[in-house]
TrEMBL record:
InterPro entries: Class_I_gatase-like, DJ-1, DJ-1/PfpI, Prot/Nucl_acid_deglycase. Gene3D superfamilies: 3.40.50.880. SUPFAM superfamilies: Class I glutamine amidotransferase-like. GO terms for cellular component: cytoplasm. This is DJ-1_PfpI domain-containing protein. Coiled coil: none annotated.
Amino acid sequence: MSKVALMLAEGFEEGEALTIADILRRGQIDCHMVSINEEVVKGAHDIHVKSDRLINDDLKEYDMIVLPGGLPGEANLRGDERVISLIKEMNDNNKFVCAMCAAPIALDKAGVLENKNFTAYVGYDEKINANGTFKEDIVVRDGNLITSRGPATVYDFAYELLEALGVDSEPIKKRMLYDLVFGGNR
C-alpha cells in the first residue's frame, strides 16, 4: 500500500489538507497527517487538527509528500529545514513531491521546480524564483511533481494524487458526486 505524508504546519489551509486526506483514504491510500511541531495543529482559520504523527526520518520511506497551502502555513513549511530536506530527498529518489496553493514556494526553496512545469496560487508565479515554467492550469503534473492552484482546486488535485499512486479515481468521483457538481468536464 502506498504511503503519503501530508505535512501540517501552523496556519495550514484546513479545507485543502482535510479534503486531500479524505480522498486519499477513500482510495485506500495510507495517508498520514504529519505535524512539523505539536500533535495538534492550528489551521489558518482557527480549526485545530490532531495529526497522526510528528515529522521524523521514517518519512523518507514514504511514496509521496504533500504540502497544503495556507498562510502562514506555507511560510512555516518553507522555514523548516527538515521539510526542505525531506522534499529534496524524496525528489532525488523520484518519489512524488506535491504542493498546492501557496505551498509550491517551499518546493522552490528546495530547488525541485527547476526546469519543471508547475502552478500555484494567484500571484505566486511572481514570488517563486525557480527556473521552471508557471502554468495557469488547475493541476499540473510534470514527472514526479504535482501542483495545484488553491482551495477550490483541491478535488482535482487529490484525484490526480490518487491516479499518480495507481488508483483509479473514477469510482471515488462517482461516489462523491463529483461529476454532478462539476459537470463531468474535468
